[in-house]
Amino acid sequence: MDNLIFATGSDIKDRILNNTIELFRTKGIKNITTETIAAESGISKKTLYEVFKSKEEMVIEIINYSKLIFDSQWINIFSKLKETKETVDFLELFHELMEAVKQIFYILSTPFLADLKKHYPLIWNNLREYRRAKIRSYFSILFKIGQESGYLRRDVNPELVYFIHYFTIDNILTPEIISEIPMSEKDIMDGILNILMTGLLTEKGSQARTEICQNKKSEF
Fold first, then answer.
1. Residues 6+ apart with CB under 8 A from 110
2. Contact call for residues 43 and 12 (beta carbons, < 8 A)
3. For 165-173, which contacts have Cβ atoms below 8 Å and span 24 or more sequence positions?
4. If you classify domain 55-216 with CATH, what class do you get?
């Protein structure tokens, strides 16, 4: 996956955040000092503090950016739902949404999340609440469309699937569990989705999913 680039309109701020993302996602938050961030960004520590008052402020900015990625994609998908109505392709939209989720996990890596939970518990809890609310919002809409379009089984209770989906993600996609599984965050996410989708899709849905995965050369 290509590196994600900040584009806030400020060259210095963008440079700092792009370097900080890479440092945090590969080495965690605690192990990275403001001196390291300044050096990697080619600026003085004084200049760094003129842009960001603390490392925590940079953490919040990065998390807000990951939320922006998801929110922008969801707004785009919701617009398509309103425009296309009955002709909407459920699996195409679901694939788009999952690609946005994978982008977020590229930024919010295991080292990043482990330090976030340990050293910034309030921010961690806020992120968990955001995740819960977003899963609820997109799930109820997309699941209904999937059933109506014949891609998802009608004999499955949406509320039950929501709770399985939510608690699976909330309890497995944690720093502690991810560190125990010899797979990347992306592969774990793909595996969870594969298990869930295999049990939910109709024959029509399974065939369409296979075609999309082959055409886009990616799993969901």
1. 175, 178, 179, 185
2. yes
3. 165/135, 165/139, 165/196, 166/132, 166/135, 166/136, 166/139, 168/192, 168/196, 169/131, 169/135, 170/128, 170/131, 170/132, 173/105
4. mainly alpha
For the chain, count helices (H), then strands (E): 11, 0
pLDDT tens for each residue of 39-56: 999 999 999 999 999 999
Is pLDDT of 32 > 90? yes
Is pLDDT at 82 greater than 80 in this prediction? Answer: no
The domains of the chain are located at 55-216
Q: Residue 4 above 50 pLDDT?
A: no
DSSP 152: B
159-196 b/e (C-beta count within 10 Å ≥ 16 → b): eebeeebeeebeeebbbeebeeeeeebbebbbeebeee
Q: What is the sign, positive or negative, of the torsion defined by CA atoms of 170, 179, 65, 104?
A: negative
Whole-angstrom Cα distance, residue 36 to residue 81? 45
State residue 201 phi and psi, 5-degree precision: -75, 145
pLDDT in tens, 151-204: 899 998 888 888 887 888 778 878 888 888 888 777 888 888 888 888 889 998
Global pTM?
0.78
Residues 6+ apart with CB under 8 A from 214: none
